[in-house]
């Protein structure tokens, strides 16, 4: 997304503003202009946050004037990989996609959303936010709670996208940014609609009004401590090898239908163990192909490597121990592709080759 965002914003002076190229060769960007764009973008995020404030908690539906700063990845997990309270993540604390390179942030502002009250934040997710609760394989009730938290964070991120705006634009850069925000808003509104229905169905299941069945692609306790953490969603365009189309996002006939997500969770437990899970809702049977491909991968290590590839290529929300990637010079080139950089089977396969060449595996860092 960042690559295309820069292209849209960049419609200025060629001499002053060189396009950042995240391919084989990196162009440079005028520092002063970059600072200016980041400042303007930061102001737009603040405006979006103010505009996005709700009035009721998503979970208990009670009136709320001060929402909890909820962490998508549980705070106790973040504390396991933080150093002096710091983490590295691809997304900034405001969930923006412009600042998509590695940045350091404190635990307090890492991957947060503001949709539920403090009481719900402390009680609702108790069965998935305790060391003793994540040491065993996940139950369906736990998968449901994990999914709800992932969807809440996704919904909030899209709400910010929908409300991004520079009020009273004064410069050409402001106008260009607002034009991009307008394009982004259209996509975000569709994502919000789809996510709202999915989220409500999961909340009904949590309240025993209905039942949701999940298919586990993998759910294991591995005998190593990982130096990253994630709980995120992704919509695969292709199978894990880039051969077969799984979701045709360009098919106009599919407009209005839900594609559904695959969810990935990776939590360090202690110095010698971590929990890794990947699952999807049974109704989204198109993902059976990916599950069968995983079943045919001979070793656990190779399955984990495949999950690492997915996280890297789809630019999902994960955090790492600080400085863990200092020796991986081309890491940023790979993670900034994202879904929009993997639009064809060839692009997907080329990115897989880059990851293989650089020998980057999140589970081996």
In short:
The protein is of the alpha+beta class. Helix content is 39%, strand content 13%.
Explain the overall architecture.
By secondary structure, this protein is α+β, with helices and mostly antiparallel strands. It has helices at 2-9, 31-51, 75-81, 118-123, 140-163, 172-206, 288-295, 300-314, 331-335, 345-358, and strands spanning 70-71, 86-89, 103-106, 112-113, 214-222, 228-234, 262-268, 274-281, 318-320. A 7-stranded antiparallel sheet has the order 3-2-9-6-7-8-5, with helices on both faces. Strands 1-4 form a two-stranded antiparallel ribbon. The longest helix has 35 residues, at 172-206. Residues 1-28, 91-102 and 336-340 have low confidence and may be disordered.
């Amino acid at each position: 997304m960042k690559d295309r965002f820069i292209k849209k914003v960049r419609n200025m002076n060629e001499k002053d503003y060189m396009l950042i190229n995240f391919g084989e060769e990196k162009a440079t960007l005028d520092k002063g202009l970059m600072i200016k764009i980041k400042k303007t973008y930061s102001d737009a995020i603040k405006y979006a946050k103010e505009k996005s404030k709700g009035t009721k908690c998503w979970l208990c539906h009670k009136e709320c004037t001060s929402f909890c700063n909820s962490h998508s990845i549980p705070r106790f997990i973040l504390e396991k990989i933080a150093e002096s309270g710091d983490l590295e993540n691809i997304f900034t604390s405001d969930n923006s996609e412009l600042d998509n390179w590695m940045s350091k942030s404190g635990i307090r502002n890492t991957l947060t959303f503001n949709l539920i009250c403090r009481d719900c934040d402390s009680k609702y997710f108790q069965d998935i936010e305790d060391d003793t609760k994540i040491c065993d394989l996940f139950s369906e009730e736990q998968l449901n709670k994990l999914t709800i938290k992932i969807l809440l964070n996704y919904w909030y991120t899209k709400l910010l996208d929908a409300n991004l705006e520079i009020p009273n634009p004064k410069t050409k850069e402001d106008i260009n940014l607002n034009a991009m925000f307008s394009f982004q808003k259209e996509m975000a509104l569709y994502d919000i609609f789809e996510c709202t229905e999915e989220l409500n169905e999961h909340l009904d299941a949590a309240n025993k009004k209905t039942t949701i069945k999940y298919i586990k692609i993998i759910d294991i306790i591995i005998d190593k401590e990982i130096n990253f953490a994630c709980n995120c969603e992704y919509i695969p365009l292709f199978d894990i090898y880039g051969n077969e189309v799984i979701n045709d996002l360009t098919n106009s006939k599919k407009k209005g239908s839900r594609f559904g997500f695959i969810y990935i969770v990776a939590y360090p437990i202690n110095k010698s163990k971590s929990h890794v899970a990947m699952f999807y809702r049974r109704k989204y049977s198109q993902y059976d192909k990916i599950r069968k491909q995983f079943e045919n991968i001979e070793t656990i290590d190779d399955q984990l490597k495949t999950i690492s590839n997915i996280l890297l290529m789809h630019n999902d929300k994960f955090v790492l121990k600080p400085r863990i990637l200092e020796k991986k010079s081309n890491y940023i080139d790979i993670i900034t592709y994202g879904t929009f950089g993997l639009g064809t089977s060839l692009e997907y396969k080329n990115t897989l080759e880059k990851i293989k060449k650089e020998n980057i595996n999140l589970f081996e860092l």
